């Protein structure tokens, strides 16, 4: 089960943030194009950064705590998901704070 550790942390992150969408109606997921435009540069930059660090031998991933699905260049799929999930959670949190402060 240790190989699911990374995914479990990401699921916990999503679980802690996704409720904001229906409860506070922040509209992040309904504006999927806007979200995608926000995610694309973040994912591209950090994937490139990770791939460079992996190639240089500066960065590794514990194979016992990842799924074992590895993309070209040695990047685990878990890490790619991290670069999507964490920014989505951050945007959900940011929009929730904006909504609460705007609609007291």
TrEMBL record:
The keyword Manganese does not apply. It is a multi-pass membrane protein. It comes from the Bacteria. It is found in: Membrane. Keywords: Carotenoid biosynthesis, Isomerase, Membrane, Transmembrane, Transmembrane helix. The chain crosses the membrane at residues 6-24, 36-60, 80-97. It holds the Pfam family Lycopene_cyc. It comes from Phytohabitans aurantiacus. Its main location: membrane. This is Lycopene cyclase domain-containing protein. Residues 5-95 form the Lycopene cyclase domain. The keyword Methyltransferase does not apply. Pathway: Carotenoid biosynthesis. InterPro entries: Lycopene_cyclase_dom. Coiled coil: none annotated.
């Amino acid at each position: 089960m240790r190989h699911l550790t990374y995914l479990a942390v990401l699921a916990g992150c999503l679980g802690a943030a996704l409720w904001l969408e229906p409860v506070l109606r922040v509209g992040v997921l309904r504006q999927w194009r806007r979200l995608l435009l926000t995610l694309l540069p973040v994912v591209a930059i950090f994937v490139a950064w990770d791939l460079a660090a992996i190639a240089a031998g500066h960065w590794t991933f514990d194979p016992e705590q990842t799924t074992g699905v590895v993309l070209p260049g040695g990047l685990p799929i878990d890490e790619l998901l991290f670069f999507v999930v964490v920014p989505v959670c951050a945007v959900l949190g940011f929009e929730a704070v904006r909504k609460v402060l705007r609609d007291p």
